[in-house]
């Protein structure tokens, strides 16, 4: 299994290097369209190789997807936490009730009830 993982990572690395080598041209990214930027007074632009833009877009998409999924699953995690809390509380109450029953019984019978 480890070799399959290494092979996959090697193929992925080779593909990323091929994309980077094929897209070395410099592109200019502008924050806003020129007319809108002049109207607002914000004209920011940056020049980067195209492969950097591609890799940053992929990373941003992954990050947005992970955050979106984490927020979507919040309800499930809260329900699980609540169920675990109730289970712990129920176990504690069962132990307490068994303790009350054991007060009126013989010690040997109480030990046998605890073992089962």
Automatic annotation (TrEMBL):
<feature type="coiled-coil region">
    <location>
        <begin position="73"/>
        <end position="107"/>
    </location>
</feature>
<dbReference type="GO" id="GO:0005886">
    <property type="term" value="C:plasma membrane"/>
</dbReference>
<keyword id="KW-1133">Transmembrane helix</keyword>
<feature type="domain" description="Lipopolysaccharide assembly protein A">
    <location>
        <begin position="43"/>
        <end position="94"/>
    </location>
</feature>
<protein>
    <recommendedName>
        <fullName>Lipopolysaccharide assembly protein A domain-containing protein</fullName>
    </recommendedName>
</protein>
<keyword id="KW-1003">Cell membrane</keyword>
<feature type="transmembrane region" description="Helical">
    <location>
        <begin position="46"/>
        <end position="68"/>
    </location>
</feature>
<keyword id="KW-0175">Coiled coil</keyword>
<keyword id="KW-0472">Membrane</keyword>
<dbReference type="InterPro" id="IPR010445">
    <property type="entry name" value="LapA_dom"/>
</dbReference>
<dbReference type="Pfam" id="PF06305">
    <property type="entry name" value="LapA_dom"/>
</dbReference>
<keyword id="KW-0812">Transmembrane</keyword>
